Structure formats: C-alpha cells, structure tokens
Amino acid sequence: MHSKVLIIGSGPAGYTAGVYAARAMLEPILISGFQPGGQLTITTEVENWPGHTEIQGPDLMVNMEAHAKSTGVKIVDDHVTELLVDRHPFMAITDKGSHYSADSIILATGAQAKWLGLPSEEKFKGFGVSACATCDGFFYRNKKVVVIGGGNTAAEEAIFLTKFADKVTLIHRRDTLRAERILQNRLTSNEKINLLWNHELTEILGSENPLGVEGIKVKNVTDGSEKNLECDGVFVAIGHSPSSELVINKMDTYDGGYVVTEPDSTKTSIPGIFAAGDITDSKYRQAVTSAGMGCMAALEAEQFLSEQGAD
Ligand code: NDP
C-alpha cells in the first residue's frame, strides 16, 4: 500500500495531522498502534481541552477518531515494527506483516509511562504495582495505596484513587510538587491523601503465594533513614519517555530519545519525515499542544509533497 502521507500514532497529534492531511486531499493512512487513542484513553477527566469544561479522556479520543474518519483518514488497526528511512518512498512494516510505502511520514507515536527500575517493581507489576490508576484503581476499594511522583500525573492519580481506596499516600522525592497549583490544592484538601515528602521508594515488599504487595520500603533522602509502610498497591507516576524506538539511531534524537525537530517546525533531520506531539516534546506534553503540532506536521508534509511534485 502506498500513501502520500503515512501517520504513525493515534493520539491528539496523529488524529489532528490526519484531519488536516485529509482536508488537503492527501488521502492519509494512519496506523493506530497498540494503544489506539494513546495516553488519554487511560486518563479520566480532561479539564483543559478547549471547548469542553470537562470531558473524559477516552471520550475525547473516540470523538477525535470519528472526526478523522469523517474527513477520510484511512485508519489501520496495526502497529509499525520497522521503519525504513534510508530509501524514498519510505517504508513501514507492521506487526501484521503489511508493508506501507509513503512519500512522507508523520511520527506521532507519543510517550509511555516510566518505571523506577527496581527488581521488586518488575516482580509485582500487575500484582499490586501499576502505572495506571484509571485502569487498576477499582481493585483497591477500601485499601491503602501509595503513589510515587510529584507531577500532574501523580497528583491526578492520587485524587482519582480516593474514589476507591481508604488511604492514599503520595510519596515525593523532594519537598515541592511539580503539579499545577489547582491540583496541589485538591491534594492537600483531600482528607484521604497524605503527603510524604523527601522520600524515595527503595523496595516493594509482598507475599509470594499468591504474589501480592503488602508494603514498601522508603528512604528519607535528607538523612538516609529507612522505614517500611504498609500498603496494598503501588502506583508509579514519575513521568513518561518518548516512544521513539522506530527511529533511534536513524535520525537525530536528544538524550532521552526525544526526536529533534527544527525550531518552530516539525521537520526532523530526515526530509519528508515530521514529528509531532510527545515523541518530540519534552516540555509542554499537553493534548492541545500535541494537536497543534499535528496540524503543523500535516501542513509541512503538504508543503514538502508540493515541492517534490507529489501532491
Ligand atoms: P512530570 O515529568 O511532570 O513529573 C514526574 C514526577 O515524577 C516529578 O515530580 C519527578 O520528581 C518524579 N520522578 C521522576 N523520576 C523519579 C524517580 N526515579 N523517582 C522518584 N520520583 C521521580 O511527569 P507527569 O507524568 O506528571 O506529567 C508529564 C506532562 O504531562 C507534564 O507536562 C504535565 O503537566 C502533563 N500532564 C498534564 C495533565 C493535565 O493537564 N491535566 C495531567 C497529567 C500530565 P521531580 O519533581 O523531583 O523531578
């Protein structure tokens, strides 16, 4: 299959790129990846998407998908496993074994949750350790949970978990939160939430048979002292890393894997390949900024194709 514009990823960046490319009559193909709709499908309320004072993340993504489809974007339920960028047209090979050649590509593969990297975290993943309160919070009705992190995600997860858990302890390695002020206020005014400052999680403790979390070991970073805390679940919310495996060592990327783009542009170091959203943005990482970059990528792809005489 050949397309003028191949979009990889189905978050706000990918769908917005699709809408713009379709309206420019470029008949884009969008390959949605393993998590259609992206990170917003595992959030709850979104309160900063213009036009909605509040909308559920999954609903927002269903709307975006429907909008993209209605403009003529061909959405493919598959996952790109290999990208050949040293030839033109470019070639994407998918999990299902399909080959897609393309005159231009928009990378919109987003980002994924980071983990602490502890052996005990790996051991209890899915057995009391999670990176998604929306997915797993329900299992902690009337229980005690901890959330690790100090950003917006950690604050939102902690607040969301109070719907189920009796007690939520937010553990942060510093004494100030990165989360927005409005979320900080909601955290501190919620009676079910405790904040534990200046502590790092060093080990997750639990039972072997059945496998399950029973507590954690934390270290005070100011004096090095350690203590154990009882809990039934651990939610890790320490940020995200870009999903750029397809292009690492094939184009310019920063330390940490973010794709380098030209200033005020979505152009990557390979002409004809554009990057939009969390794969390239280590700073803003918002749905609305991702959508904006998706728009830019489609407009720049259109210009590229026109210069190549391929539009
Ligand atoms: P952030 O990078 O903003 O925050 C990560 C947090 O985890 C920081 O507090 C950081 O600590 C802590 N952390 C990182 N690594 C470790 C570690 N190894 N051990 C312990 N703690 C660690 O990530 P988020 O996922 O919270 O947010 C990502 C982006 O998405 C942000 O731009 C955020 O604003 C946005 N977002 C917006 C939402 C909204 O608007 N509703 C909702 C969710 C996210 P430290 O502070 O010390 O660096």
Characterization of this structure:
With 311 residues, this protein is an alpha/beta fold. The protein folds into 2 domains: 181 residues, FAD/NAD(P)-binding domain (3-Layer(bba) Sandwich); 118 residues, FAD/NAD(P)-binding domain. Strands 1, 2, 5, 6, 7, 8 and 19 form a 7-stranded mixed beta sheet that branches. It has a 5-stranded parallel beta sheet with strand order 10-17-11-12-13. Strands 14-15-16 form a 3-stranded antiparallel beta sheet. Helix 6 links the parallel strand 12 and strand 13. The two termini are 17 Å apart. 42% of the residues are buried. The mean pLDDT is 96. It binds NADPH dihydro-nicotinamide-adenine-dinucleotide phosphate.
CATH architecture verdict of the largest domain: 3-Layer(bba) Sandwich
Helix content: 10-25%
CATH homologous superfamily of the largest domain? FAD/NAD(P)-binding domain
Q: What's the rounded overall pLDDT mean? A: 96
Per DSSP, what share of the residues sits in E-state strands of 2 or more residues? Answer: 25-35%
State the total count of DSSP E strands: 19
Task: Note the main sheet.
Answer: 7 strands, mixed
Tally of contiguous helical segments: 7
Q: What sequence of helices (H) and strands (E) makes up the elements?
A: EHEEEHEEEEEHEHEHEHEEEEEEEH
Structural class: alpha/beta
Shape: elongated
Q: How many separate domains make up the residues?
A: 2
Question: Would you give the CATH topology of the largest domain?
Answer: FAD/NAD(P)-binding domain
